[in-house]
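Field log, afternoon session.

UNIT: design team B
ACTIVITY: writing a sequence onto a fixed backbone
BACKBONE:
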């Protein structure tokens, strides 16, 4: 493996660095989405039951015990539960807009890596071929053709490496972006439900 990296030249080290960054981003995002995953329907039913009894502190504690985008919105809503419906709605919408950057964190970097890796691989191939043909020019037509073949083969290593890094990066980027979009859409659909829930319990204390 080390020999292959060394044959690829300095470009290969940049591709390797990009691959490590991509792995870190993918693992971190997957763990994050696993951490915020909750049974929203069950959680909202539990919160509704608690709020109808006027136990806002208990509802706040439930939200803190189950951190997720939906409970973050509920926490803000509970803080504003005595306010008019429009104020509650605006507070929840503001909270929802703050959740989006958290969900999308590092995804742009992953997308950049997916685009940049094959381009770096191509750059390594071009520079490697330049060196290989430069050697052929020095020795002329009587040079060893095998030398040229080995040079080109080594140059193509970076292209292969770039593609190998880009393929999983693209797959996970698309998967994570789709997941984020679904969560954002679900939050938008939940806003009215949360407002109505909180509005009906605003004077329950």
């Amino acid at each position: 493996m080390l020999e292959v990296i060394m044959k690829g030249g300095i470009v290969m080290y940049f591709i390797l660095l990009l691959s490590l960054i991509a792995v870190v981003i993918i693992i971190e995002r997957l763990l994050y989405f696993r951490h915020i995953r909750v049974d929203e329907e069950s959680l909202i039913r539990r919160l509704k039951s608690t709020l109808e009894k006027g136990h806002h502190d208990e509802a706040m504690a439930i939200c803190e015990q189950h951190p997720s985008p939906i409970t973050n919105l509920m926490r803000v809503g509970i803080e504003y539960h005595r306010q008019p419906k429009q104020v509650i709605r605006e507070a929840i919408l503001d909270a929802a807009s703050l959740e989006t950057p958290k969900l999308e964190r590092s995804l742009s970097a992953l997308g950049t890596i997916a685009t940049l890796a094959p381009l770096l691989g191509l750059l390594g191939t071009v520079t490697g071929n330049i060196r290989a043909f430069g050697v052929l020019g020095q020795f002329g037509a009587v040079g060893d053709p095998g030398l040229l073949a080995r040079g080109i083969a080594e140059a193509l290593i970076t292209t292969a490496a770039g593609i190998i890094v880009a393929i999983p990066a693209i797959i996970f980027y698309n998967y994570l972006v789709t997941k984020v979009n679904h969560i954002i859409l679900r939050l938008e659909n939940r806003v009215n439900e949360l407002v109505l829930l909180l509005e009906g319990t605003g004077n329950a204390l």
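LOG NOTE: The chain has one domain: 2-199.
NEXT ACTIVITY: expression trials, pending approval
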